């Protein structure tokens, strides 16, 4: 029984390594070529796996592509910090740092462009964007509970403002510095602060 369990664990480890390799290969291809110019055949060849192996983990190219992007960019859930400003700063700093990497503009731009004509990709991409929105909403709600965000703040408007800053970080790339993030955080937190 112990031997079967050990074999099962090794199989899971191998499957996990294969999955990670496929995701990393997919991300590298997307960064260098963009969504439209990467096929499942390309990914299988570069990852040295069969297409059947890919489809064992993801039902479609769209699912694989979004999974690869999400793996690379990671979660945006801000930890509970001392203030709304600190938490918004954490989100903006982490996202702007991710977007400074070469090829990110090509990746995000190609996904946004393809999503306009691909309903399945649009749905998956929207779900990914909603993750950021949920993270920002959590930060706003914690700020309201803590008292450093006014209770009558328009949550959707504030969330949209932060999302706009993140979108600008994609376009600005290397020019989006930590000093810029600090200035933006100060503006956002001042706008959301309770009246004195």
CATH superfamily of the largest domain: Tetracycline Repressor, domain 2
Q: Kindly report the average pLDDT value.
A: 86
Under the CATH scheme, the architecture of the largest domain is Orthogonal Bundle
Domains, number: 2
Structural class: mainly alpha
CATH topology of the largest domain: Tetracycline Repressor, domain 2
Question: What is the C-alpha radius of gyration, as a whole number of Å?
Answer: 20 Å
Query: Main beta sheet, described?
Result: none
The number of strands is 0
Strand share of the residues? under 5%
What is the rounded distance between the termini?
A: 68 Å
Q: Tell me the series of helices and strands, N- to C-terminal.
A: HHHHHHHHH
* Number of H/I helices: 9
How would you sum up the global shape? elongated
Given this structure, which CATH class of the largest domain is correct?
Answer: Mainly Alpha
Helix content: over 70%
- The parts where pLDDT drops under 50 for at least 5 residues are none
